[in-house]
């Protein structure tokens, strides 16, 4: 009954045209302890705190969200959009293991009755690494079914039916691992760029990391950082085959890193996340990038659109630019592209402090911005995901200095409210507001041997920051 009432409430344009007052966002002077409230002409209809929130996925019916939460995961009931509710939460996963618990959980994926929970995202966040397989046939009572332990961290993953695709970046290797999780998890295949083309061995491991993977209709899309985006035929999971590549060749990447024309943090490159529309004809590749002292034009990164109707010959169409920022460096105000999703000709995207957006990409040569909501001091969005098409979408926000991490529910309609981007004079040029993170040296020291290893390898501060903080 709750779901039927919620969908009825969301029908039509009334929700989109009236001020949103259900869960006003607190704003005010950072740290003053007495935030005022506001009413947005467009804004979230609901919000629930989820400590440590990072990636979020939503069930096909839009009724349930699963949220990666750094030291575990949470299950959120979305059936009442104005009152999203955490109905299950699991922390300190596998704490009974000798090297547990599993930590650094930045990604979850869902298919059918299965939830895949992976970590740690980065070296040094957890001694235990692997993919936890959870039965969520009853979302309010998730049940651990199996665990696939690895000797590498898992930053991101994808679950296609009973097949898990894992980013396997360990030691000198940067590869895609493919695991059958139907019963006892079993490795069934892998793919590695340097085995496909040994010219890539001239590029250091960090810039050719596999950051994320997306799979649809037997094609895997690998966001391979400075090695670009790779399309793989995975119809035979034991023997993935290259379809095409978007990006620079190995010699160019190696030369530009050696010359200083490229860096780990700055553009060009930085293929961070890739996804396709339902037809598999339109590909979006997001670049997570920051400006540096040497490369002030190196960030923030946007989202590039490609026609892949002929997958062997990708064609560049357009670029969606990132929101403006007074300081695009890693220590500044992040507005670079992060995770996103296509649905019914709309691209739903997240931009950290740059907020969340919706773009009409029915004409991908000229994408049109429909929606932009941002609250720079209080929200730092990791992802945007469709809830009920035409009614809601959701976005998870990391904690900032002024507000806790949370899952937001937005109307799936047009509008704009951008606090901190010109319509609020108190917030027009804010100072950085993210919760402080350990310095690269401190964080690296937590991982056995990482400080000395990095020093021996001649890795700079930027690379260490990537290892330890890369979202």
From TrEMBL:
<feature type="region of interest" description="Disordered">
    <location>
        <begin position="19"/>
        <end position="44"/>
    </location>
</feature>
<dbReference type="InterPro" id="IPR013211">
    <property type="entry name" value="LVIVD"/>
</dbReference>
<feature type="region of interest" description="Disordered">
    <location>
        <begin position="418"/>
        <end position="449"/>
    </location>
</feature>
<protein>
    <recommendedName>
        <fullName>LVIVD repeat-containing protein</fullName>
    </recommendedName>
</protein>
<dbReference type="Pfam" id="PF08309">
    <property type="entry name" value="LVIVD"/>
</dbReference>
<feature type="compositionally biased region" description="Low complexity">
    <location>
        <begin position="19"/>
        <end position="34"/>
    </location>
</feature>
<feature type="compositionally biased region" description="Low complexity">
    <location>
        <begin position="428"/>
        <end position="449"/>
    </location>
</feature>
């Amino acid at each position: 009954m709750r779901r039927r009432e919620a969908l009825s409430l969301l029908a039509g344009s009334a929700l989109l045209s009236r001020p949103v007052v259900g869960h006003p966002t607190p704003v005010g002077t950072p740290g003053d302890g007495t935030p005022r409230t506001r009413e947005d002409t467009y804004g979230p209809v609901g919000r629930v705190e989820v400590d440590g929130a990072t990636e979020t996925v939503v069930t096909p019916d839009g009724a349930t969200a699963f949220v990666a939460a750094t030291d575990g995961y949470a299950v959120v009931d979305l059936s009442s959009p104005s009152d999203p509710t955490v109905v299950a939460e699991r922390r300190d996963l596998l704490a009974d293991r000798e090297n547990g618990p599993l930590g650094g959980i930045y990604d979850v994926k869902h298919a059918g009755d299965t939830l895949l929970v992976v970590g740690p995202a980065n070296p040094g966040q957890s001694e235990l690494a692997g993919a936890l397989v959870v039965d969520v046939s009853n979302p309010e009572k998730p049940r651990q079914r199996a665990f696939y332990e690895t000797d590498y961290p898992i930053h991101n993953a994808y679950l296609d039916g009973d097949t898990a695709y894992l980013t396997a970046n360990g030691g000198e290797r940067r590869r895609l691992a493919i695991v059958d999780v139907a019963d006892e998890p079993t490795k069934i295949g892998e793919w590695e760029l340097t085995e496909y083309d040994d010219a890539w061995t001239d590029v250091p491991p960090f810039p050719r990391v596999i950051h994320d993977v997306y799979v649809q209709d037997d094609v895997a899309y690998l966001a391979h950082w400075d090695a670009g985006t790779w399309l793989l035929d995975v119809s035979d999971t034991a023997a993935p085959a290259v379809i095409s590549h978007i990006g620079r060749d190995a010699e160019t990447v190696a030369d530009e890193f050696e010359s200083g024309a490229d860096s780990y943090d700055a553009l060009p490159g930085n293929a961070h996340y890739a996804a396709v529309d339902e037809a598999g004809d339109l590909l979006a590749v997001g670049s997570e990038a920051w400006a540096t002292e040497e490369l002030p034009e190196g960030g923030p990164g946007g989202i590039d659109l490609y026609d892949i109707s002929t997958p062997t010959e990708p064609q560049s169409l357009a670029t969606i630019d990132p929101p403006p920022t007074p300081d695009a460096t890693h220590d500044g105000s992040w507005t670079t592209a992060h995770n996103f999703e296509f649905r019914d000709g709309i691209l739903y995207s997240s931009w950290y402090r740059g907020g969340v957006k919706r773009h009409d990409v029915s004409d991908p040569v000229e994408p049109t911005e429909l929606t932009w909501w941002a609250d720079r001091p209080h929200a730092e969005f990791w992802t945007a995901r469709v809830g009920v098409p035409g009614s809601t979408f959701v976005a998870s926000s990391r904690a900032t200095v002024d507000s806790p991490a949370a899952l937001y529910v937005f109307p799936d309609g047009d509008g704009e409210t951008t606090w901190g981007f010109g319509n609020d004079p108190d917030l027009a040029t804010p100072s950085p507001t993210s919760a402080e993170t350990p310095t690269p040296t401190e964080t690296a020291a937590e991982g056995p041997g990482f400080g000395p290893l990095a020093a021996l390898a001649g890795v700079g501060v930027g690379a260490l920051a990537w290892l330890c903080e890369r979202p």
